[in-house]
């Protein structure tokens, strides 16, 4: 008995130490180059976090509120309060949560399978470009992935266990809370819920349906009843219009994502690109996993396949949208590859022995060593040929691989943009987040994509965006009014959205009419190439009030430019020359 307890203690201690090691390693890995340039929507959380610290609400501007993924905003705010305002501090919550998810995958596989499967599955997942991208992205995806994985794990623990009712209830409640929390953070988690529900239903019904002691008549009645209930539910959803609404959401994408709506091969293409070997033989790996651990393998396989299929035929596509399901693929790979490694041990020995005659010019002992090294290099080549590691390295190094455009370096443009931001009567931009974060000023946002994201019944020129409070326009004619009615102005946009070189999904963000208007009536402002930005300015002797109705334009001083600042930030509020607030220029890149 004492020996058994000692052995159990040693196994638990070894597992704990291994979990701590892989967690610390993941933390260190994901902390590389955290101060890299910001990427898209993470600035929503960062700006809202600063507003939360300054006002008690996730405020951007006077009336803008960014409530989506509020738990992430709160975590970012606490990190900024603790470590100071920086991109590194903003990303630390995502880094920590992703490291926790890696540990969860490791512990789950070690507990339900074996240490080898745990190291392979969690190791591949930790080093994957999917995990690195989410870990260094100040957004809710790491929290979504962790909460869904833990919730699904709790469901897995209950199925097939002869627990008393009270224990099932106590386990089901946190499972429901975690899965529901994941759905609240990102609705794509519903695809994972569908896979989880299908697996639970199969695990509960299939053994009963295969039980010969249950009469065929009873089985038929139960199956018919379930089918009838499903049909009635669908009919009710169709009659009430819920089915049309859900289908509309499923098959609708925002403007920036519109060109990918029908690319059902989107995720398949990325897996083939990153893991051509593993993805191609995933079917064989799944068979090996099912042989090794049928329950565990079917669990991971069902959740991933259902999530993958639902996501592939949805209109909106992004690798992050599938992140809730990706840990389960690596669970499956870890389990199947561990089985293959164990089964191949004798084969590898025979392969090495078969290679020995190729090195007859060496002594027998050296020939065996050379054969072993050659076999090792052959196996290593399988890893090297799969470019996932290369993508992971370039992401950590912040190297853009064409045709991927480089990130915008807003701070690099400050020496040129700064004077114009101070003197221009109006500042118009196609990307308000970068302008607000680096320059604290964005008077008008020109974006057909974000126009669509605001409530249709509120659409009107210069309506304030509900997230940032920046007045919003979507057409060239509204921009023309701004040019006519302001003596001086500045227009800033991404280079990737401008000109005939724009291609792929970025092409949906290009507006040819706006380009023609700006190039005809404004002057290019040369910016450093590394900024990846374009800027134009205009100057009139006086506002041409006779050529346009300027009376109903928003007062620039009252909109868009004010972002809640942390108490330590300086605020200047006078500018006699322009008659409006001046926002302090802040080089956030340090």
SSE inventory with pairings:
Elements: H1 2-30, H2 42-55, E1 59-60, E2 64-65, H3 70-83, H4 87-112, H5 115-127, H6 129-135, H7 141-158, H8 165-185, H9 189-209, H10 216-239, H11 242-250, H12 266-274, H13 276-280, H14 282-292, H15 294-313, H16 326-343, H17 345-355, H18 364-385, H19 388-396, H20 414-423, E3 426-429, H21 432-439, E4 444-446, H22 448-453, E5 463-464, E6 471-473, H23 476-485, E7 488-494, H24 512-521, E8 523-524, E9 533-539
Parallel strand pairs: 3-4, 3-7, 4-6
Antiparallel strand pairs: 1-2, 5-6, 7-9, 8-9
Structural write-up:
The chain is mainly alpha-helical and 590 residues long. Among the domains are: 1-140, no CATH class; 344-396; 411-558, no CATH class. The chain contains 24 helices and 9 strands. The chain has helices at 2-30, 42-55, 70-83, 87-112, 115-127, 129-135, 141-158, 165-185, 189-209, 216-239, 242-250, 266-274, 276-280, 282-292, 294-313, 326-343, 345-355, 364-385, 388-396, 414-423, 432-439, 448-453, 476-485, 512-521, and strands at residues 59-60, 64-65, 426-429, 444-446, 463-464, 471-473, 488-494, 523-524, 533-539. Strands 5-6-4-3-7-9-8 form a 7-stranded mixed beta sheet, sandwiched between helices. The protein has a two-stranded antiparallel sheet with strand order 1-2. Strand 8 (523-524) and strand 9 form a beta hairpin. Helix 7 (141-158) packs antiparallel against helix 8 (165-185), helix 7 (141-158) runs parallel beside helix 9 and helix 23 packs parallel to helix 24. The longest helix has 29 residues, at 2-30. The radius of gyration is 28 Å and the shape is globular. The protein starts with a helix and ends in a 51-residue tail after the last strand. The relative contact order is 0.10. Mean pLDDT is 86; it is low at 1-10, 557-561 and 567-590.
């Amino acid at each position: 008995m004492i020996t058994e307890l000692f052995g159990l203690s040693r196994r638990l201690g070894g597992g704990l130490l291994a979990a701590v090691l892989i967690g610390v390693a993941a933390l260190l890995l994901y902390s590389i180059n955290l101060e890299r340039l910001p990427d898209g929507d993470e600035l929503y959380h960062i700006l809202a976090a600063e507003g939360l610290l300054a006002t008690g609400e996730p405020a951007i501007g006077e009336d803008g509120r960014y409530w989506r993924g509020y738990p992430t905003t709160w975590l970012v705010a606490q990190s900024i309060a603790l470590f100071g305002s920086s991109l590194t501090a903003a990303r630390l919550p995502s880094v920590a949560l992703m490291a926790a998810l890696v540990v969860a995958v490791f512990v789950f596989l070690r507990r339900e399978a074996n240490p080898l499967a745990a190291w392979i599955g969690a190791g591949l997942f930790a080093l994957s470009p999917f995990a690195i991208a989410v870990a260094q992205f100040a957004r809710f995806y790491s929290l979504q992935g962790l909460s869904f994985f833990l919730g699904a794990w709790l469901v897995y623990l209950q199925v097939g266990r002869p627990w008393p009712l009270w224990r099932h209830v106590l386990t089901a409640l946190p499972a429901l809370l975690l899965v529901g929390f994941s759905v609240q953070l990102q609705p794509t988690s519903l695809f994972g819920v569908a896979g989880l529900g299908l697996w639970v239903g199969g695990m509960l019904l299939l053994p009963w349906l295969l039980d010969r002691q249950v009469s065929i008549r009873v089985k038929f009645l139960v199956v018919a009843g379930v089918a009838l209930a499903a049909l009635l539910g669908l009919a009710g959803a169709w009659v009430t219009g819920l089915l049309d609404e859900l289908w509309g959401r499923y098959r609708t994408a925002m403007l920036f994502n519109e060109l990918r709506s029908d690319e059902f091969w989107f995720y398949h293409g990325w897996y083939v690109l990153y893991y051509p070997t593993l993805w191609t033989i995933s079917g064989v790996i799944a068979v090996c996993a099912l042989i090794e651990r049928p329950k565990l393998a079917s669990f991971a396989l069902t959740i991933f396949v259902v999530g993958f299929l639902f996501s592939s035929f949805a209109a909106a596509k992004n690798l992050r949208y599938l992140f809730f399901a990706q840990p389960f693929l690596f669970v499956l790979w870890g389990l199947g590859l561990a089985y293959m490694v164990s089964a191949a041990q004798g084969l590898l020995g025979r392969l090495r022995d078969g290679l020995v005659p190729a090195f007859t010019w060496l002594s027998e002992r050296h020939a065996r060593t050379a054969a072993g090294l050659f076999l090792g290099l052959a196996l290593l080549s399988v890893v090297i040929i799969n470019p996932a590691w290369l993508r992971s390295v370039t992401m950590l190094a912040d190297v853009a691989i064409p045709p991927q455009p480089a990130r915008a370096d807003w701070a690099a443009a400050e020496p040129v943009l700064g004077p114009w931001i101070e003197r221009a009567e109006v500042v118009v931009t196609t990307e308000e987040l970068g302008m607000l974060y680096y320059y604290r000023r964005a008077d008008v946002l020109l974006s057909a994509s974000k126009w669509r994201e605001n409530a249709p019944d509120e659409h009107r020129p210069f309506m304030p965006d509900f997230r940032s409070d920046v007045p919003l326009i979507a057409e060239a004619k509204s921009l023309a009014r701004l040019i006519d009615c302001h003596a001086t102005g500045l227009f800033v946009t991404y280079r990737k959205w401008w000109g005939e070189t724009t291609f792929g999904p970025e092409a949906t963000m290009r507006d040819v009419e706006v380009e023609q208007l700006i190039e005809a009536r404004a002057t290019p402002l040369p910016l450093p190439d590394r900024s990846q930005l374009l800027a134009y300015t205009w100057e009139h002797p006086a506002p041409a009030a006779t050529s346009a109705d300027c009376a109903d334009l928003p007062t620039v001083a009252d909109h868009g430019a004010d972002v809640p600042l942390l108490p330590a930030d300086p605020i200047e509020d006078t500018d006699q020359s322009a008659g409006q607030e001046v926002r302090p220029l802040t080089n956030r890149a340090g």
